[in-house]
Amino acid sequence: MATKLPTVAIIGRANAGKSSLFNRIMRSQQAIVAREAGTTRDNVIGKASYQGRDFWLVDTAGLKPAEDEFEASIQDQITEAAEAADVILVVVDSTKYPSDEDRRVAKTALKSRKPVILITNKIDLKGNLPDSEFLRLGIKSIIRTSAEHNSGITDVLSEICQHIPAKQQSEPSETLKIALIGRPNVGKSSLFNTLAGKQQAIVASRAGTTRDVNRVRLQYHGQAIELLDTAGIRRQGKQEVGIEKFSVLRTLAAIEEADICFLLMDVNELSTALDQKLAGIIAEAGKGLAIVVSKWDIALGKDAYTRDALAPKISAQFDFTPWAPLIFTSSVTGQNVAKLFDLALSINANRQQKTTTRKLNDLLQQSIQKHPPAGLKNTHPKLRYIVQTDTNPPWFVIYGSNLKFVHWSYKRYLERQIRDIFDYTGTPIKLSFRDEKQLKANRERVARGLAPVTKAYKQAKNAEKQL
What we know:
Elements: E1 7-11, H1 18-26, E2 44-50, E3 53-59, H2 69-84, E4 87-93, H3 100-111, E5 116-121, E6 141-144, H4 153-161, E7 175-181, H5 188-196, E8 214-220, E9 223-229, H6 243-257, E10 260-266, H7 273-284, E11 288-294, H8 304-317, E12 326-328, H9 337-352, H10 357-370, E13 382-390, E14 395-401, H11 408-421, E15 430-435, H12 436-447, H13 455-466
Parallel strand pairs: 1-3, 1-4, 4-5, 5-6, 7-9, 7-10, 10-11, 11-12, 14-15
Antiparallel strand pairs: 2-3, 8-9, 13-14
Helix pairs in contact: 10-11
């Protein structure tokens, strides 16, 4: 079972360098960075990792005077970010004396009683002030940075890691967690209520009623299940400022927590780019996935022919997740709703499936004979053997040499070969490649007592014996 990732929120007044700091930590240009103050209007969210610790990083809009309703909503958003975060980074411009806005940001952060770190940014510029000038903000932990020149970033990450738990191998839970994911008003809350058998969520025709994650526990054929109903994610340009912005983060956290995600789509508005993006996030997170077409009772011209005609079109839009089953439902008539539980149990069983090393290696050798991997003129990848190292999701490691030359299309080919023999419907499978030189080095380290005997090490050694 996955656990909820901690959240780190970056707050501060406009043009202090929050987006530059976000980009440095994420090692990418996800936020818009510009000289004009107040460029960032929305939360920008990314999943960061450092020293075995994973967390959501949130870059919030800059704090500006509430001259109108829109700016007031931005300030509400920052308050919401501080309340929802586990760690708060307050960013100030080190070349300017603390202002009333800085004091307001610091007060908002400290009021949350969460760990707060003060980042004095832009220390590369002339006239930057000493930390003593910022002590009046009341934040004890102060780190000097230059996000533009990548200075002090590791200090920030190290300090964050002091306040969040290390990534742990969580014990398998007996409770199967199912998250309902999708855009607003696609019928998530109605389906949640129908599955739960009682009125748990507020159901309304107005889009975006659900602001947080609703939960209910139930039993189905002896299996404990927890349903998670999430607030819908709108397309970026249509998201409202304020509380709804932070529902995006809660939805991502629900995906992280769930074992299986049902991606809901309104039958009258199918296969949008956002639906595809959500499917990609779920697959990348290694979660089970089923695509659920909702509101089938109000589909125009609905009949078997329509369903048979729609299914290939939808599948073509999600060709990057061809393993995800497609089901048509109606919460009003109850059509196929009960089947969702059976589908979830089936996907869960597939995710737990273990395959013998002997069968896997027979499959690998047959696949290579049918279609050898291509390489450079005198350098071809050699795939020697394969082992399954994990379940939930199923994870396979292939050992060999010159593996850096394995083309992505050949990895797809190997995945198809595995899926043709073993039923992994509804779940992504992960493929990793490890060079034999690395394995040999690991053996030597274990023999000299410099490294522990890991599960993966044992599996690789057993696989070699069976060849």
